[in-house]
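User: Sequence for Ribosome production factor 1 below. Tokens please.
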Amino acid sequence: AGDGSGPAGSVVAAAGEPPGEPPAPQRVLFPPTFSVSEIKNKQRRHFMFVRWKQQQRKEKLAARKKRRKEREALGDKAPPKAIPKTIENQRVYDETTVDPNDEEVAFDEATDEFAPYFNRQTVPKILITTSDRPRGRTVRFCEQLSTVIPNSHVYYRRGLALKRIIPQCIARDFTDLIVINEDRKIPNGLVLSHLPDGPTAHFRMSSVRLRKEIKRKGKEPTEHVPEVILNNFTTRLGHSVGRMFASLFPHDPQFIGRQVATFHNQRDYIFFRFHRYIFKSEKKVGIQELGPRFTLKLRSLQKGTFDSKFGEYEWIHKRREMDTNRRKFHL
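Assistant: Structure tokens for Ribosome production factor 1:
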């Protein structure tokens, strides 16, 4: 406006100027609560928002460079780097967290259902089956899973109840039973039962990717026994689940095959990846994903073999009671 008053963006003359002298440089005044969302024009609003984000990134990068130069100038006297706050390092303490030197935990692990495997008294033999009359995607997933787990066999169910399959598995010396459930032709659940005395874990499965759906995947996996990596299974419940996964694979991995199966627990989600090491030089090594990949979420842990009607449960995930704090984890 010509009189110096008006909405945001108007020009205001500096106060206290002596008469007859040229006006001082003028500045644009914005309302103190100005927000990009107040701009009515959609294209203009988007343009201003992008420019604001770019400015923020530049300021953040400049501050980071400044801190790095200050640390280089101080040398050994530089203060330690600040640890960023994450949900993981702010985790609520769990009283069931396992101490490696706990005698009670050592005794329980020496006498539990997985002790014969860890004492090398049994050799893993896995049966992989599906829900009744599986579809193509579930069938292909089971076939690829059998190439990841050595000494595993695929059986496609057609009307046979799970309670009738378990006695047959025990009679044929199978040590574990894996059941892949599906919904609308998509794998959505996994039941893992350790034979002959349990326990049985029920997982929700998501983010399933077959080999052909993975970018930059490697060649087909070989028959070598892979190395197994278990990450962040720290509580008593997590130890039980980790021991279940470990008992699926034979002892003494064949490192010449350069294959590794990883079960990574993060915020109670278990991410499975299957990789191959690629040695580029004596000092550099890369990894190449072979697939398949999937994510598991523990729903229940049941004592004994599968029994949906009379089974005794050690742990059940209850959303309304257990998910009240984002920083509380159970595995």
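The first strand starts at residue 126 and ends at 130.
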